[in-house]
Amino acid sequence: MAVGYGMTAVDFLATVDRFPNPDDKVRSSSLKVEGGGNAGNALTCAARLGLKPKLISKIADDAHGFAILKELEADGVDTNFIVAARLDASTIYPECTGCHAFKISKYQLCNCDFG
User: Fold this and answer.
1) Where does the record place the Carbohydrate kinase PfkB domain (predicted)?
2) pLDDT over 90 for what percent of the chain?
3) 71 φ, ψ to 5°?
4) Percent of the chain, pLDDT > 70?
5) What is the model's pTM?
6) What CA dihedral angle connects 33, 39, 41 and 42, to 10 degrees?
7) pLDDT digits over 68-79, tens only?
8) Domain 3-88 class in CATH
9) 3-state class (DSSP) for residue 27
């Protein structure tokens, strides 16, 4: 058995011809919407390897949150310890430097190493 605690998310994966510069507008040729987040991804892998993983996490009580729940269950992850709650929208997007910036409501944080 594997138990994980952490983030689950929805990933919007757009295919573009080039990585846009700041303030550029580029058209995508395709868009996929899939479950993501470190804990969700890791335990999905564990389930696909034959383990019986359990995930402790929180999802939004909206269409995206319930889509995450459905996808995890379909992959064999035990979701009995996931709580659905009213959450503020959050977005994670790649910066030009290759790090990830986290924007939660009007506040922005970044896990980049600026050293």
Assistant:
1) 5-83
2) 32
3) -65, -40
4) 75
5) 0.69
6) 180
7) 999 999 999 999
8) alpha beta
9) coil
Alpha carbon of residue 103 to chain centroid: 13
- What sign for the dihedral angle of Cα 30, 105, 38, 62? negative
Give the pair of three-digit tokens for residue 36: 């993501």
At 56, is the secondary structure helix, strand, or coil? strand
Neighbours of 62 (CB within 10 A): 13
Position 68, amino acid:
I
Distance of alpha carbon 1 from alpha carbon 62, whole angstroms: 29
How far is the C-alpha of 65 from the C-alpha of 69, rounded, in Å? 6
- The residues that bridge with 3 in the sheet, in sequence order, are 54
CB 26 within 8 A of CB 20: yes
Task: Say which amino acid occupies 1.
Answer: M
Cα–Cα distance measured from residue 54 to residue 82, given in angstroms and rounded to the nearest whole number: 9
Query: What's the CA gap between 75 and 45, in Å, rounded?
Result: 9
Q: Residue 59 has what pLDDT? A: 86
